[in-house]
Write a structure and sequence with these properties.
- By secondary structure, the protein is α+β, with helices and mostly antiparallel strands.
- The protein is built from 15 helices and 10 strands.
- Among the domains are: 4-170 and 378-392, Nucleoside diphosphate kinase-like domain (Alpha-Beta Plaits), CATH 3.30.70; 229-304, no CATH class.
- 46% of the residues lie in helices and 16% in strands.
- The chain has a 4-stranded antiparallel beta sheet with strand order 2-3-1-6, sandwiched between helices.
- A hairpin with a 7-residue loop joins strand 4 and strand 5 (138-142).
C-alpha cells in the first residue's frame, strides 16, 4: 500500500508547558506510523498568516476558523518574539486519518468537563472554554496540536513548511537571559533501543527530562554513521580500557584457575589483563559503536563508514541554568542497576551498554558532541522534498 507523509504541529503553549513528551507518546503508541523527522522552529508572522490563510480557504468550518485565528493570534510572534513550535513528521499508510484519530477533534459546541474521556491528545491537553453568559462565545481556546484532515491538505502544508524551513538553523534562540554565565546546553540522545517498535518510551523519557525545567531548543532524528559513532565515543574508549581490562583479566584468571585447578600469581593476571582484558574491552567498545550506528568497525567496509546507519535515535538540545548537571541528575549513572529510583536509566535501561539515553557530562563535551552530530542542521526539509520528488517520478 502507498505510504504518505503527514505531520503534527505541537503548539507553543504545549511546548512551553513541557507536554511534548506526552504528545509524542500518544502518537507513537496509538498509530502504525513511523516518525521520520522532528524539528523545533519559530514561526514568523508571514508563516503564521500564510498557514492561517490556507485553513480559511479549505472550508468554512468553525474548527478551521478557530485554528486560523489561533495561528495569527498565538503562534505568530508576540511583541516581536517568536515562539518555539515543534513539528513531527510521520510516514505510513493513511497518516492523516491515523494522526487525526490520535489527536482528536476540536469541539465547537459546549462540552461539559465530565463528558471528556482523556482518550485523545486534545482531550488531555487542549481547552475550549465558553463564556457562561453567552454559550456561543469562546472565552479561551488552546488546541494543543494541529494536524491536517486530508492528504491533499497535508501535501500542500508540507511543501509550504519545507519552503519556510529551507536554510533555517536548527537551534532556536528566542529568549534573552539575565545572566548568560549560568546558561549551559546539554545534548541528550534517546538511543536506538527505544525505537525498535512503536511505543511511548521516547515520549516518557522526554517527560522525565522536562522535570529539570530546561528548554528544548533543538531536536532532530539522527542516524550515526560508523565514523561519527567512533568519534562521538572515542573519549570513552580509554576509560573502558582502564576500567574493564583489569576486571576481565581478573575474571580470566579465575576461570583458568577453576578450569585447570591451578593457582596463578599476580604476574599472570597482569599478562591476562594486558592481553585478553584489553581485547575484551575493545570488543565492548565495538559493541557500543555498533549499537549506536548499526555497523561494527570489524566488518563495515571503508566506503560505507560515512553513510548514516540503519538505526535511529532522537537528539534533543536542552538549555538553561546549570543544564549539564540537572539533566544528568535525571539521567542517572551509566549502570541502570546502580541508578537511583526515578531516573531515566533506572526506569528504562537494561545494561551498561543498553542504557536508553546519553547526556553531555560537561560543557566542553556538549560543544564537541554538537559538532559531531551537526546539531544546527536538520534533514526534515530533505525528507519532505525527496518524498514529493519521488512521488512525481
Amino acid at each position: 500500500m502507498q505510504e504518505d507523509l503527514s505531520y503534527v504541529m505541537v503548539t507553543p503553549h504545549t511546548v512551553a508547558k513541557s507536554r511534548t513528551g506526552g504528545v509524542l507518546s500518544r502518537l507513537l503508541s496509538r498509530t502504525n506510523l513511523e516518525l521520520v523527522g522532528t524539528q523545533i522552529f519559530a514561526p514568523s508572522d508571514d508563516f503564521a498568516y500564510e498557514y492561517a490563510s490556507t485553513l480559511r480557504r479549505r472550508a468554512p468550518q468553525n474548527q478551521l476558523m478557530l485554528l486560523a485565528d489561533y495561528m495569527e493570534n498565538v503562534v505568530a510572534p508576540n511583541g516581536g518574539r517568536p515562539h518555539r513550535t515543534l513539528l513531527l513528521l510521520f510516514k505510513g499508510v493513511n497518516p492523516c486519518d491515523q494522526l487525526l484519530e490520535a489527536c482528536g477533534h476540536i469541539f465547537t459546541q459546549n462540552v461539559t468537563v465530565d463528558a471528556l474521556l482523556g482518550e485523545t491528545i486534545r482531550d488531555t491537553y487542549a481547552d475550549i472554554i465558553y463564556s457562561k453568559d453567552n454559550p456561543e462565545e469562546i472565552y479561551y481556546f488552546e488546541p494543543a496540536v494541529l494536524t491536517p484532515r486530508l492528504q491533499n491538505d497535508a501535501n500542500n502544508d508540507l511543501q509550504m513548511i519545507a519552503h519556510y524551513l529551507e536554510g533555517k538553523e536548527n537551534i532556536v534562540q528566542n529568549i534573552s537571559y539575565l545572566d548568560t554565565t549560568k546558561i549551559e546546553q546539554s545534548l541528550v540522545i534517546i538511543k536506538p533501543d527505544n525505537w525498535h517498535f512503536g511505543s511511548g518510551r521516547p515520549g516518557s523519557i522526554m517527560d522525565m527530562f522536562s522535570r529539570t525545567g530546561m528548554r528544548v531548543v533543538a531536536t532532530k532524528l539522527f542516524r550515526f554513521s560508523l565514523n561519527q559513532a567512533l568519534e562521538f565515543y572515542g573519549s570513552v574508549r580509554g576509560n573502558l580500557m582502564k576500567r574493564l581490562s583489569p576486571a576481565f583479566g581478573k575474571k580470566a584468571r579465575e576461570v583458568l584457575e577453576r578450569e585447570f585447578e591451578i593457582a596463578l600469581d599476580d604476574r599472570i593476571e597482569a599478562i591476562l589483563t594486558d592481553s585478553f582484558g584489553r581485547e575484551y574491552a575493545k570488543e565492548e567498545f565495538y559493541k557500543l559503536v555498533e549499537f549506536m550506528s548499526g555497523s561494527s568497525p570489524d566488518t563495515c567496509p571503508v566506503e560505507k563508514r560515512n553513510i548514516p546507519g540503519d538505526v535511529k535515535c532522537m537528539i534533543n538540545l536542552y538549555e538553561g541554568e546549570n543544564a549539564i548537571q540537572k539533566i544528568r541528575d535525571v539521567l542517572g549513572p551509566t549502570d541502570p542497576l546502580q541508578a537511583p529510583v526515578g531516573t531515566v536509566r533506572r526506569e528504562f535501561g537494561s545494561s551498561v551498554m543498553v542504557n536508553t539515553a546519553h547526556a553531555s557530562d560537561s560543557v566542553e563535551n556538549s560543544i564537541r558532541e554538537q559538532e559531531i552530530v551537526k546539531i544546527n542542521e536538520n534533514s526534515l526539509v530533505s525528507i519532505i522534498n525527496e518524498h514529493f520528488s519521488g512521488s512525481r517520478n
